[in-house]
Amino acid sequence: MSGIRIAIVDDHPIFREGVASCLDDIGGFDLVGEGNCRDDAVLLAERAEPDVMLLDISMPGGGLDAVRRIMERRSAQKIVMLTVSEDNADVAAALKCGARGYVLKGVGSRTLADVLRLVHAGEMYLSPVLSAQMVASMLHREEEDAGPRIDVLTPREREVLRLVAAGLSNKRIGRELNLHEKTVKHHMTRIFAKLGVSNRTEAAMALRDATDPASPARGAARIRPLSARGERDRPPLPGG
Q1: Concatenated DSSP letters for 134-168?
Q2: Centroid of chain to Cα 224
Q3: Residue 87: which of 34, 47, 127 has the closest Cα?
Q4: Could you tell me if 104 and 84 are in contact, meaning their C-beta atoms sit under 8 angstroms apart?
Q5: What is d(CA 156, CA 174) in angstroms, rounded to the nearest whole number?
């Protein structure tokens, strides 16, 4: 049985080799390509068609620009940023460009493997060390006092969110909108990311706050990291 197809793009060859070696030791992953710059990343996405790409931010040409170009050409591509940058602007930009995960290079090898499996399965992951306050300022700094921005959602995502707020399950939402349940789950993942929430209750509250400015709960909820999964102290990735 073939493993998850991975491509690694980082301008430090020793670090790339270390990540590849760790994933090979853990098993369940197939390395389909490596690169060291933005243009390599774009070509790998188109030619190797990896399931998940690991990209650094500070590569030549820029990792964030690589994400933008890849998503323009291959919108379903799953990308995880593996970087030393904890800068709020970098994290926000990566998620808004379409990255599905953001992991710091101090992560243990087994935790990285878990992240890749999660993202491959359609989930999103944000390194827990990036605090709730950082996430709030990253994703909503322009709207800090205005509450959630429902208008960032697509019309279909707003339809899904309204049914969530009405208490419908994913299966029932699928029936109402004539969608597969997996498609509903995909919409929910995107809704969570865009609103900076981590569960259905918070998403429903965001809709209520946006449509009812007089709601007393407006602005009361804290945005939490997108994942509560701990980063275990496994052997750290070499190099970097």
Answers
A1: HHHHHHHSTTTTT---GGGS-HHHHHHHHHHHTT-
A2: 14
A3: 127
A4: yes
A5: 12
Reading the block at residue 95, the tokens are 């998620």
pLDDT of residue 219: 37
Amino acid code (one letter) for 69: R
Task: Please give the span between the terminal C-alpha atoms of the chain, in angstroms, as a whole number.
Answer: 31
Whether residue 9 contacts residue 57, with contact meaning beta carbons closer than 8 Å, is answered with: no
Which pair of tokens denotes residue 23? 């994933």
What is the pLDDT confidence band of residue 148, given thresholds at 50, 70 and 90?
low
Those residues with Cβ within 8 angstroms of residue 71's Cβ, 6 or more apart along the chain or in another chain: 77, 79, 97, 98
The closest alpha carbon to 37, from 15, 69, 10, belongs to 10
Q: How far apart are the C-alpha atoms of 29 and 5, rounded to whole Å?
A: 6
> For residue 8, with 0-12 CB atoms within 10 Å meaning exposed, 13-18 middle and 19 or more buried, which class applies?
buried
Give tens-digit pLDDT for 171-225.
999 999 999 999 999 999 999 988 888 888 888 888 887 776 544 433 333 333 4
- The pTM of the whole model exceeds 0.90: no
Task: For residue 142, give the DSSP letter.
Answer: T
Q: Give the residue with greater pLDDT, 135 vs 159.
A: 159
pLDDT at 23: 95
Residue 27: what pLDDT? 95
Q: How many CB atoms lie within 10 A of CB 224?
A: 18
